[in-house]
Structures are given as C-alpha cells and as structure tokens.
Amino acid sequence: MILTWQDYKKWLGDITLSSMPEKQPAPSATDWCSDSRTIPVGSWFLPIRGELFDGHKFINTAMENGAKGFIYDKDSLYDFHEKYREFGLMVTDTLLAYQQIAAGWRTTLSKTRIAAITGSVGKTTTKEMIACVFRNAGHCFSTSGSFNNEIGVPKSVLAIKKTDDYAILEFGAKRLGNIKFLCDIAKPDIAVLLNVGVAHLGIFGSLDNLRNTKLEIVRDSPKHAIIVVHRDDEKNFIPAQQTGKTVISFGKHRESDVRILKTEVDSGKGQTRIELQYKAKVYNATLKSCHNAFPVNAAAALATGIAAGISMDIAIRGLEAFEPVAGRFKVLRGPSLIAVDDTYNASPDSMKAGILSVIEQFPGKKVNLLLGGMLELGDESAKMHEEIGHFLANHPVNHLVTVGADANFIGQGFNASIKNPREIKHFATVEEAVKSSANVLDGAEVLFVKGSNGIGLTQFLTHLKTSGILL
Fold first, then answer.
1. What is the pLDDT of residues 173-207, one digit of tens each?
2. Distances (CA, A) of 83 to 63, 79, 87, 94, 184
3. pLDDT tens for residues 264-311?
4. Boundary (domain end) residue, out of 81, 101, 121
5. Averaged over 28-57, what is the pLDDT?
6. Residue 139: helix, strand or coil by DSSP?
7. Does residue 44 lie within any of the structural domains?
8. Which residues, at least 6 apart from 245, have a Cβ–Cβ distance to it below 8 Å?
9. What is the DSSP string of 348-364?
10. Whole-prediction pTM value?
11. Contact in structure between 349 and 381 (CB atoms under 8 Å)
12. Containing domain of residue 93, as a range?
C-alpha cells in the first residue's frame, strides 16, 4: 500500500506543528528508522529522546547517510542544519508521533489476524511457539527478540505487511496502564494472558498491581478480541470471563478448552510428548525440549491457533517445528559436558521450573548449577533468593555456584535447609566466575546456567565455547 501525506495528516492530527514535507513522497510503513548509523538509504529518520540520549543530535548524520527526511520535536529546531529543514516534519513529540503512525497503519491491516501475548514467565517462548503455529497456516509476522514496549511494539506493528495472514506481538510493562496503551496501538484480535508471577515485582510494588497490569490485555483489548487464558489460574480466568468476550482456555484444569491430559519426557531424545484434548477429541504433540513448563506454553500456542481459526491438526504440525532459542533452555553439547543455556532471564518461578526440568531431563547425571541473581524483585529479593536455596535442598545437586546481586542468599538458604552445610562458591561478577571456570565445572556432567539477563551469564557460556569445552 502506498501511503500519502493525507494518511499522515489523519494519523498525526493536532500533534503536527508544521506543514507536510510534500517535496518528498510520503514514507511507507517500513521506511522509519531510529538508528542514524545504519539507516538504509531512502528511509526516514525517527529521532527519539531518552533519559540518556537524544536522537535529534544525529539528524545531520542520518541525512548525510542517505535519509530522505525526518520528524523532529519543537525543542530541536536548531539541532540540525538549516538546509535540511525542508525535509523535516515538526511534531510535539516524536515518540508519540511514531506510536500514532503505528496505530494508523494498524487500521489498514484488515486481512491480518493479530495476536498479542503478555505474562510474567515464558511469554517469549510461547510467542515463538505461536509463530510456528501461524506459519504452518499462512504468512506470519513475529516480533523480533523482545520488542515489547512503547517503542518496540510500534516498530513491530509497522513491520507487519498487508499480505501477512497472522502476526504475533509481545507486550511487556513496567507500570499500570502500559499494556492498555499497547492495546490501543496494536488493537489485537487475539489477547493471550499466559500467567502472572512475581517477576519484576520490585517495579510494580505489589502482586495486585502486577496482576492488574497484566489483566489490561484482557480488559482493554478490543471488544471483538478473543481472549486466550490459563484455566488453572482463577484470578486470571474469572476476569477474562467477566469481560463478555469470547474466551478460549488452556491448561490442566478439567474444564480447559485445550486440556493437557498427560506429558511424557524422553530424556534420551530430548523430547516431551503431550496428550491433549480439544472438543472431546484427543491429540498428540511432540516438543523438541524437556522443559516442564513447555507443555503449558504449547497448550497456549494451540489455543491461540484455534482462536485464529486454525485447525488443531495444522496447529500441532506447526508447533512441532518449534525449537528452543538461545537463552531459553537451549541444550548445548561438548566433548564431555552438556550445558543448558537458560540465561535470558530469571524469576523465582522460572528458576524453580528450570532446575526441575534439567534434573528430570538428565536423571543420574552430576548436575552443577551456575545461578545468577534474579533482578527487580524489590524488598523481597533476599527472601526469594533464600527460598530458591530451600527448594534446592530437596533435589540432587552436585555443586552450586552463584553469581551477582543477592545470589549469595541462594547458598545461605540451601545450607540452612540441610544437615551438613556445603561449600557454596559465590562470585560477585561473571568475570570472576570465568576466571574460576574449573571450579564452576568441578565434576559436572551437566551444567545448568540461569540468571537475570543483567547478570551477563552468557559470557560464561561464550568462554566455554571459545575454550572448546562446548561446541
């Protein structure tokens, strides 16, 4: 679709403070770029003002690198060369303009079924599963990485093509109202609430605030939206029902629309077989992973496929193409060591699930745990880290090594729960752990690596790869 300046006038409305730069053709939805260093020739530059940077300082660079034009806010008139002024569009706020352009583009995507997912744990993995389901039924756009905030979601929406049959977006939040705002931009046809846990509890202040924020995807998605929700959590399921929207549920609860009947782990093949029921018919699916949270994620993906009008058989074939991505329970192998990379992020729930999964997948193996701190837990952080230690005391662990903020409390909790306290290695930084990698690996046949992304445990795995310990 060729956009015109009339489209932009309609979408931007009264935040426009200058005439349209009509000497240039109006940019297409995919012409916008916020990085002046890598801007493709012929694109339009979007300078964003942040706490630590101001993109307006790079307008000259963007134009010199081949940008056709740019938008800018009223306070930045003298941040760029006067010769470029005729190629610019002044607005009250460039980020708001970006968001309104994305919302406008969304109104043109009548053919595309757009799903959006939020949750505390596992939403990126489930997003990738949903993408596999969608791709088996047609053309699908999927959000890259975790573009799930007020900048990433508009970027994703603008990347959806009118020829896409499906799209899957991820919604994140740092405060009440964030997900409602993203719903207003993306207007999802399918709203998926995976779960609500204590991840990022420190940001929200209370579990009630966190849950109410996540529930915005249920309450503030469009009236026509189909809600996909975990049936096992009444605090999410009941509010979904109360919206009056169509609800498709998933889980182990006997009243789930997509019900998990049985799971079976094949540790030798690294697979999980799932038996599910939908409309009184039993189906079987095989996942290329043994993480014990993945069956619920898979059920959510299948329920999302059903909400999009995809048959269960087609959805399952798509789901079975899913492979874990780096940082999300990805199994890595070396000549004498297996490592499980679960470094993308961590919360108490995902930490426990990952530990259980690795122990179940590798029974009888000597498992070392390299656990990083779980960030953004607020005042409860020390207590929640100690609880991981208490949990570990009931499971076979060869060696426990901790890294980073508050992770030392995991060791304290562990030793407080066993009769004969053990030596727990703790490193303040991942760099220290790398220098003592022999101690970390001591006697390990399997190494499980997990912590919040900010701890940087991927550096340890990179070291193992460059050292030839992992292939």
1. 888 899 999 999 999 999 999 988 755 556 656 77
2. 10, 12, 9, 20, 37
3. 988 778 899 999 999 999 999 999 988 888 999 999 999 999 999 999
4. 101
5. 92
6. coil
7. yes
8. 218, 221, 223, 224, 225, 226, 227
9. HHHHHHHHHHHHHHSTT
10. 0.88
11. no
12. 5-101
